[in-house]
Amino acid sequence: MMKLKLFVMFLFLGSLCFAQMWINDLDQAKRLAKTTNKLIILDFTANWCKPCKEMEREYWNNPKYKGSLGSFIAVSVDFDSEKFLRSYYDVKSIPNVKVIDYQGNVIHQSLGFLNAKMSDLEFGGFPSDVTLLYDVLELQKLKNPSDAELIEVGSAYQGLVQKSVNSRAKNAFAKLSDTYFSKCIKKTEIAEFKEKARLAKAFNSVLTDNPKHALKNIDITKVSVGNKLSAFYILLHASYSTENRADAEKWFAEIERTGQEDWIRNAQKLKAKYAK
């Protein structure tokens, strides 16, 4: 009986410690997020909100899903008292959950009640380390970023598409990534940058399970020499994704023919992934 009591107490304390991961100070959360290279999750809630409390019980404070919450700095925002945040993030009803970066930019949001399974699909696929993004985040503040800077920010978001696990996270980062590539396409007068941004958008379509879009929109005969390798790799990825092994082998051979070791290694990793 004593062992059973100790076991129950251990489970209780474990759950309690997990619940204490939440903080209520967004400024503190932003500092922590920047230091630890994590995203922030904002859960707008209230004591009277039964769906909010049910989500807390089933998902947010459930040790079974601690891995998902561990990817974030978690902030609980009181809907009634935090009127500024409620207005700033345009929160008109709850449950309302937002994923933001350390500067407060919204990356993803979810409105309404979600059971534990759906909540994990919504938030469980975000990367636990977003150094790629935070290294270039200051560039977003520039009033007139260069073509290269727009490509750099778009590529950082694209890197997080590749690090994400599920479609919600992938699509959230891909949308932001495409925004910067589109800005570059619209702004630049340099053909190589315009082409690079278009290829990058095509790669996002491959990464978000729409490889046919890339295959349709990349004409390798019209791609410049400077962007040829990128195009080969995107077409290789798209061909594997559509199970077109013949074309995949063709693009793999093209990459090998260049003798570029980094690209060859990436192609080999991709080949090994789809060989499983």
TrEMBL record:
Any GO BP annotation: cell redox homeostasis
Ranges annotated as spanning the membrane: none
Matches recorded under InterPro entries: Thioredoxin-like_sf
Keyword list, A-Z: Oxidoreductase
First-tier enzyme category under EC: oxidoreductase
Protein name in the entry: Thiol:disulfide interchange protein DsbD
EC number: 1.8.1.8
Record GO terms (molecular function): protein-disulfide reductase [NAD(P)H] activity
PANTHER family: THIOREDOXIN, MITOCHONDRIAL
Pfam families associated with the record: Thioredoxin_7 (PF13899)
UniProt-listed Gene3D superfamilies: Glutaredoxin
